[in-house]
Fold these 2 entries.
Entry 1:
Amino acid sequence: MNRFVVGVRANLQTFVRTPLNVVLALVLPLVVIEGWGQAMAGLPSMPTVEGIPLDLGRLLGAIFGVAIIAGLMGLVQMISAREADRRLVQTGYAPRTLLATRLATLAGVTIVVAGVNFGVLWLTIDVEAPLFVFAFLALAGVVYAFLGALVGAVLPRLFEGSLVVVFLAMMDAFLSGDSPLAADVPDFVQYFPLYHPKELLQSAVFDGTFAAGDLAFVGGYLLVLLVLVTAVFGATMRTAGGWSA
Amino acid sequence: METTTAPTETVGESKTLVRGNALEKTYGSRLPLGRSTPVLTGADIEVRAGEIVGIVGENGSGKSTLMKILVGVLDHDVGTVERTGTVGWCPQEPLLYDRLTVSETFRLFGAGYGMSREEIDAAKRRLADELDFERYLDYRVDQLSGGNRQKVNLSIALMHDPDVLMLDEPYTGFDWETYLRFWDMAQDLANDGTAVVMISHLIEERSRLDRVFEVRDGLVHDVTDEETESGLRSDPEGEHE
């Protein structure tokens, strides 16, 4: 039997049998998109900021909603079955195959989550290029899914790892966004995971266009994350881990 | 550290399937001033085809560490491990995926072993019948009782008919009938040439073992013909080490 296919199927079965995952994926977008929108609606419009605050808030809420769900899913995928994973590797699964099943599952579920977020966004604001918007939301989610997986591989503790992912996503969405409260952000913010996906999304929503440079940057970002998570996961699946005596 | 899969020599009629030479293992601390704990300090062991070997020792003596090193899921610091053929490993704690059903668990681990769908189904039916858990095949692992979960844990180690079977207290939670059936299975496997290595705590099992090794002071002692100082106690719930 094909190990990759069997592994992806098992991951998906595990995901949908965790009701909280499904509820979060369906409910959180509504709450986050509208919450961010209303939070920013009370802020004054700035001459340097594109779009009205309410719409911009919803846009940032959508990208944050995808990122945080995908990031937490990535984290949980790497932590929840760490010991069973080692046994699976002992049976013959190559760590890279096992990781590939995890990342493929994450990408698939993230696309669904992005679809939900896109649907909510489309119903609440005018979107110039719907397909691009959906694609860039999915891209932002995949970046955070891989980032969550990396955090889970490096820091295999659910509570601490969740704090890292949530704090990072909140700070990232806030500083990467064009919030009037974060207008003068330092240059290094452009290296944050959501900065370029947000640029892509914002252009697609308000102008129906996007900059190829932003897309290339996100592609490179994904590649770097992929290399890092592969290296760390491979190291954790090696047999020198901290098993109890 | 060195691990090979090279075949080893035949002793009498039985081929040596697993050999560990001068194995050393120390658990270190990740903290700068943390304590490091030497567990094995030069352990030697060899296991031959068709025999049932018991590993005994006090809690914390290094039995599980030794088994994990022989299986290949834990690195050793010094020494060599040679293995021939396939290995089935039944860890003391069932390392399974809670949200998968028993059938899905077989499919996932069977794919890992490189088995075909037909082989997996056949193994599942055979083991479910032998260990009496057919009616739970569609249950999720997290919905099983401890005993049934342990049956699945054992079955995953057995499903690919390994040449060497490494069992870390495999009967924890078994009822008496299952326990007896398990020993019949172990004996049948050994008769067919499988090497069965088992961490054991029960004095009743002494007569079922061909050889007994005690892990003591970081070394492995062949105590087949002696009373052990600490092993083989009447301690069916032997504390995990």
Entry 2:
Amino acid sequence: MAAPAASLAALGPVLIANRGEIACRIAATCRRLGIPTVAVYSDADATALHVAAADDAERIGPAPPRESYLSIPAILDAARHAGARSVHPGYGFLSENADFAAACAAAGLVFIGPPAEAIRAMGGKAAARAVARGAGVPSVPGYDGENQSDAVLLAAAESVGFPVMIKAVAGGGGRGMRRVPDAAAFPAALEGARREAAAFGDTRVLVEKLVQRARHIEVQVFADRHGNVVHLGERDCTLQRRNQKLVEESPAPGMDAALREELGRRATALASAVGYVGAGTLEFVADADAPLAADRIWFIEMNTRLQVEHPVTEMVTGLDLVEWQLRVAAGEPLPLRQEQIRLDGHAVEARLCAEDPARGFLPSPGRLAALHLPEGLEGVRVDTGVRAGDLVTPFYDPLLAKVIAHAPTREAALDRLAEALRRCAAEGIRINAAFLAAALDSAEMRSGEVDTGFLERARTRLLLARAA
Amino acid sequence: MSEVKVVSEIAASVWKIQANPGDRVEEGDVILILESMKMEIPVTAPQAGTVQAILVREGETVEEDQHVATLAG
């Protein structure tokens, strides 16, 4: 690993190995701290907002991500050419690629993220469960052993009790996953999961008890190079569609101080167990059929990077998490101790995407002829990666901007965000703003009685509500 | 026998071609899979027929409403 830079200034120029809103957001903090930045761009992004947000910019290749934002050699070449001294990976793309973290260090660049070994230790689903076992943190009841015989896996399923999930150890994005209602359906589901798992180059599977109605709760942690680890409270990311989060909030409805402390203890124990450094998130699944309780919430996996939804934590803590990442990367101790971290009020974020709810949420690329975002409203923050006139291409994910509202209470924050979303408008492409506003106004969301399947089940009603 | 145009419903890149000229397809069979904004979007046969031509290649980008394949129905 490269030696830590001696000071914040020594990180500059920071090469931002990303695009869109997160590249703009990282550049903004660097600018405030007086650290120069270098953007990278593919041919599809030559005139993109994130290029204008940085001090310098380097072309890294053609539009397809494999040939640009996912190309380690292209990004290292750009860093060398621009004289960058550190690399911020953002989220997605190469942010959780241990080889990239190692390649940056080998090239003498400070990687603004965890050590490659920590990324690897949390890399697979079975590996993360093993780390949790070692740290005494409960995972969803299940089996992740090396014996992969049909009989052993079926026995494991019967021992945790049906229904269960079969998951490919190396899988992701919902592939290699099967819900299994009973023992009779197990053999066919196992065969299907293994067949999809083969695409990840690893046919191993694990068996977990299915949490039928689930809430998604995650804990933000931060660690420095001096052995300090803190948590910054939780986020509730239960409103999802096709495993993609759409609305995130902090605090989680129904969370009390004692349970937050317990989850914080679990999260910091897991981070310590892998020698974590920087910003990380521990994801948990909670049973939505019962009130939040320590024995109904289980660890699922760690995201070894900054999250899309980090602004809700920033708004309730008053902290700038990118600044913390930079300070940690520069070798400074964490700016605050656990007892100095205060949570104030309630924050909610919605992801504004280029998609058409009325056409089954089909992606909606095209020329963004006009764009109105609710900037300047009290308690509302907008993180955008686009502006009017931009071409929104099919090559990258549909996230255009994030709208985040903060208020003293949950009710007021939801009102504020719904109002802000109703003021969003785009011409030339379709956006999901009205659908999100309807979801925020739904009785289920207001009472906090939602689970991860809610948006899919309520979809038609929410589409009609927005037309009313 | 009529000629049926198969079009792309959105701007995308062609991820996988699943049918070849000469193949017999039923209504709803996947002819090719597009990728747009990290989502896979299948292009299916609007009716049963025989694939006459595939007009795009894997990796190529297509526009909304672009004619991507022809069926003889």
